[in-house]
Amino acid sequence: MRIAVPRGAMFKETLDMLDTLGIDTSEVRSNDRKLLFEEAGIITMRPSDVPTYVEAGAADIGITGKDVLAEQGGRGVYELHDLGFGPCTMVFATVDGEDPAAEALRRLGHMRIATKYARIAHDYFERTGRQVEIVEVKGSVELAPLTGMVHGIVDLTATGTTLRENGLIVREEIMQSTARLIANPVSYRIKAAEIDAVVEHLRAG
Ligand SMILES: Nc1ncnc2c1ncn2[C@@H]1O[C@H](COP(=O)(O)OP(=O)(O)OP(=O)(O)O)[C@@H](O)[C@H]1O
Ligand SMILES: O=P(O)(O)OC[C@H]1O[C@H](OP(=O)(O)OP(=O)(O)O)[C@H](O)[C@@H]1O
């Protein structure tokens, strides 16, 4: 069985979880640049690429954030288990101390929002009856409103440090996210016993 493992924020806890399944992750831990670990059956990548590899069957199962799955909605993968780690919240945030009257007026019109999560942001504002123009950025989203380029951001927060350090405050919470175990639908049938054993083990905690 091949497993798609996200590097970055969920990397260490993912490897700790795989250890509990009896998978030897020592080579992965000691190798920053290598991507495919044949013996352990692990391939490593950015969290947002995990659904792509799992959907294509290049990995049988994978670990990624609920936020990633929401943003990429409609992927052909099964979501098997909430792993609980990697908690964070998708929020709408703006510059602190802004004039409430100006904000109320703007809500009647058109807001410009910077985000890496265009679909989540678009759907959220549409659902709540507001028109927005989405400005897609690749990272450090918190910078965008400080330059006046946008009125607010939709981004993940965990400790709140990044927002605070940049003078931004949470206006609205959009969704909670944690790491999820996903599976390729064909693998889920062909390797049912193996994958079921993993899920059972995780459910048992
Ligand atoms: N404190 C956190 N901040 C941001 N993301 C977190 C946090 N804790 C867990 N996560 C999860 O980790 C993912 C982001 O991980 P990371 O920052 O390593 O990725 P990235 O380099 O931004 O890659 P990508 O381009 O795939 O989003 C999020 O999608 C989320 O599910
Ligand atoms: O609330 P905090 O604990 O401060 O964490 C939130 C920050 O972490 C993430 O950024 P990441 O490090 O993934 O970089 P990015 O902005 O380039 O995506 C996220 O986009 C926030 O910027």
From TrEMBL:
Gene3D superfamilies: Periplasmic binding protein-like II. It is found in: Cytoplasm. The keyword Cytoplasm applies. One of its GO terms (cellular component) is cytoplasm. It is an enzyme of class 2 (transferase). Residues 46-203 form the ATP phosphoribosyltransferase catalytic domain. Keywords: Amino-acid biosynthesis, ATP-binding, Cytoplasm, Glycosyltransferase, Histidine biosynthesis, Nucleotide-binding, Transferase. InterPro entries: ATP_PRibTrfase_cat, ATP_PRibTrfase_HisG, ATP_PRibTrfase_HisG_short. Its EC number is 2.4.2.17. One of its GO terms (molecular function) is ATP phosphoribosyltransferase activity. It catalyses: 1-(5-phospho-beta-D-ribosyl)-ATP + diphosphate = 5-phospho-alpha-D-ribose 1-diphosphate + ATP. The keyword Translocase does not apply. Its main location: cytoplasm. GO terms for biological process: L-histidine biosynthetic process. Pathway: Amino-acid biosynthesis; L-histidine biosynthesis; L-histidine from 5-phospho-alpha-D-ribose 1-diphosphate: step 1/9. Heteromultimer composed of HisG and HisZ subunits. Belongs to the ATP phosphoribosyltransferase family. Short subfamily. Catalyzes the condensation of ATP and 5-phosphoribose 1-diphosphate to form N'-(5'-phosphoribosyl)-ATP (PR-ATP). Has a crucial role in the pathway because the rate of histidine biosynthesis seems to be controlled primarily by regulation of HisG enzymatic activity. Lacks the C-terminal regulatory region which is replaced by HisZ. This is ATP phosphoribosyltransferase. It comes from Solirubrobacter ginsenosidimutans. The lineage of its organism: Bacteria, Bacillati, Actinomycetota, Thermoleophilia, Solirubrobacterales.
